[in-house]
Amino acid sequence: MKANITEIKPNQITTDDLAFSAYLKMKGYHIIKLDQNKSKSIFTFAVDSEDADSLKMEFINSDFLSYHNELRNLKKLI
Fold first, then answer.
1. How far apart, in Å, are the Cα atoms of 34 and each of 2, 16, 21, 37, 49?
2. What percent of the chain has pLDDT over 90?
3. Count of CB atoms situated within 10 Å of the CB of 62
4. Does 1 score more than 80 pLDDT?
5. pLDDT over 90 at 16, yes or no
6. Which H or E run includes 25?
7. What is the rounded CA–CA span in Å between residue 67 and residue 73?
8. Which of 63, 72, 51 lies closest to 4 in space, CA to CA?
């Protein structure tokens, strides 16, 4: 299994992590760029510079990540 790539720059986050992207959308952040090829999508979000550093840790510690992991585990059963 390949690791997800997340890059944090001032005022933006770029990631191929679908769960993290969904979390950012749920939090109200806007997609400013979407790059797609046949096997992967890369999302870029506009964020406040003070939010960028803390969002990934917030996501990792959130119930949303637990939900995503349980959903993924259930999909494996079917």
1. 20, 10, 11, 10, 20
2. 53
3. 14
4. no
5. yes
6. helix 18-26
7. 10
8. 72
At residue 57 the predicted structure's pLDDT band, cuts being 50, 70 and 90, is confident
Rg (alpha carbons) of the chain, rounded to whole number: 13
Residue 8 burial (CB < 10 Å; 0-12/13-18/19+)? Answer: middle
Distance of CA 69 to CAs 13, 19, 20, 75, 76, Å?
Answer: 22, 9, 12, 10, 11
Nearest to 44, CA basis, from 69, 25, 63: 25
- HEC readout, 27-39: CCCEEEEEEECCC
